[in-house]
Design brief:
Layout lengths: L3 H10 L16 E2 L10 H14 L9 H20 L8 E4 L2 H16 L5 E5 L8 H10 L2 E5 L12 H4 L3 E7 L11 H10 L3 E5 L11 H4 L3 E5 L10 E5 L1 H6 L10 E4 L4 E3 L13 H17 L1 H20 L6 E3 L11 E6 L4 H10 L2 E2 L1 E3 L4 H7 L4 E5 L6 H17 L3
Parallel strand pairs: 1-13, 3-4, 3-5, 5-6, 6-7
Antiparallel strand pairs: 2-8, 7-8, 9-10, 11-12, 12-15, 14-15
The structure holds ligand 7TS.
The site of ligand 7TS has 17 residues, from helix 4.
């Protein structure tokens, strides 16, 4: 019998046409790689097609009706994203290509203008490369020091020496949810302490805002970065949230058209926020379709999404635990309250890539490798892990299919 919550997920899955597609081997698709990118509901696909069919024109310049319609839809999508994360106003949302670009924007603008020798940046040991490499380069350019909040063997943040770590810190940059272990960062304890130490806080929300309600004002973060493609939206669009007073004082990032007010041969002045940070023609269609994705998620309800993923993760942890006597190892926080819908694991001595290939023959899509967290893998001593990640359209049937495929791997490897 299908439980009520799971029944709703089955209904939701029907909104995602790709999930109805069997694999070339004729298997039902169990898509368990939403941490890499999410699938798209029909409403988002329709928004893209509708825009190109009816509203396509360049924005912020035409006076004709079509251009006004495109501009309005683009700005309306910004307002939808602002309200989705409870920003104070749409002007605090800057469109970027993805999380990576949003973090780089902060590093190249605020970072270069504000950091110098004697200052420090604090990350954690489980950052995605996108929230690490920009700070390494910034530290190298400015002479600032890069420090790390340690994580223990379960991937939980170790906060004992946080106050010492926060000395002379200008920026604390943390992922809200680890894409490798699912760890939810204890922002409630870190953000006030970071602010008390005089630091700003940047949160990499790539793996949080798609999966549970995020309120940037309640979290009191200064910067928040996310990617549209992980939250049912298209690729090529993401956003940076920043508090107004920060965006106003930050120098521009890329320069050229759209981000200017007056241009002379020698000098220029810049547009108001957020357009000051949006040089050149934006990915208008994708921004509008991200607005449709946000409408879709809001109509399902982010509280439901979070509850559903928590239940499904608990179910998957139980099913995977049954393989432990045969050598399956599950990584990450033991308590489900500390983790979101991401489960990294290894099965005996099967290489994670081989395991993922066997699962694929049964229609199960998981990622294998270092998940763009090479320093974390090195620290933990894992060459690679297989990773299953869940979203609102996944069901217990997907988890059962994963367990079935693991039985097949066990048979092949005589475990
Ligand atoms: N930060 C985190 C925590 C992420 O998980 C990712 C992507 C990024 C930043 C970068 O996002 P992008 O949209 O700018 O590329 N994570 C993954 C993943 O886990 N598998 O593929 C991409």
């Amino acid at each position: 019998m299908i439980a009520t919550a799971d029944l709703r997920a089955h209904q939701i899955a029907r909104d995602f046409p790709l999930l109805r597609q069997p694999t070339s081997r004729g298997k039902r698709l169990a898509y368990l790689d939403s941490a890499a990118t999410s699938q798209k509901p029909q409403a988002v696909i329709d928004a893209l097609v509708h825009y190109y069919t009816h509203d396509n024109a360049n924005i912020h310049r035409g006076v004709y009706e079509l251009a006004e319609r495109a501009t309005d839809a683009f700005e309306e999508a910004r307002a939808k994203v602002a309200s989705f994360i409870n920003a104070a106003e749409p002007a605090e949302i800057v469109w970027t290509r993805n999380t990576t670009e949003a973090i780089n924007l902060v590093s190249f603008t605020w970072g270069l203008a504000n950091l110098g020798r004697g200052d420090a940046i604090v990350c954690s040991q489980l950052e995605h490369h996108s929230n690490l490499v920009p700070w390494q380069l910034l530290a190298a350019k400015t002479g600032a020091e890069l420090r790390f909040i340690g994580v223990d063997g379960d991937g939980l943040h170790m906060l004992d020496d946080l106050d010492a770590k926060l000395r002379n810190v200008k920026l604390v940059a943390l992922s809200h949810v680890s894409n490798t272990l699912g760890t939810i960062a204890p922002l409630d304890s870190i953000v006030p302490r970071a602010h008390a130490a005089g630091a700003l806080v940047l949160v990499d929300g790539a793996q949080s805002v798609p999966h549970f309600p995020v309120d940037v004002r309640a979290l009191d973060v200064d910067f928040f970065a996310a990617s549209g493609h992980k939250m049912c939206g298209p690729t090529g669009i993401g956003f940076l949230y920043a508090k107004r007073r920060l965006l106003e004082t930050m120098p521009p990032f890329l320069t050229g058209g759209d981000m200017i007010r007056e241009v002379g041969y020698e000098t220029s002045s810049f547009n108001e926020i957020p357009w000051k940070f949006e040089a050149g023609t934006s990915n208008v269609a994708a921004a509008i379709a991200l607005g449709a994705a946000v409408d879709y998620l809001a109509s399902v309800g982010m509280d439901w999404v979070a509850d559903h993923e928590r239940r499904l993760t608990a179910y998957a942890l139980r099913r995977l635990a049954a393989f432990e006597p045969r050598g399956l190892v599950i990584y990450g926080p033991p308590r489900t309250v500390d983790r979101s819908g991401v489960i990294s694991f290894n099965f005996a001595d099967i290489h994670a890539h081989d395991l993922a290939s066997i699962l694929d023959t049964e229609g199960v899509c998981v990622r294998a490798g270092h998940h763009c967290t090479m320093p974390l893998m090195e620290k933990m001593g894992w060459p690679a892990t297989a990773r299953a990640s869940f979203y609102l359209y996944n069901t217990e049937e997907d988890v059962d299919q994963l367990a079935f495929a693991l039985e097949k791997a066990a048979t092949i490897f005589r475990l």
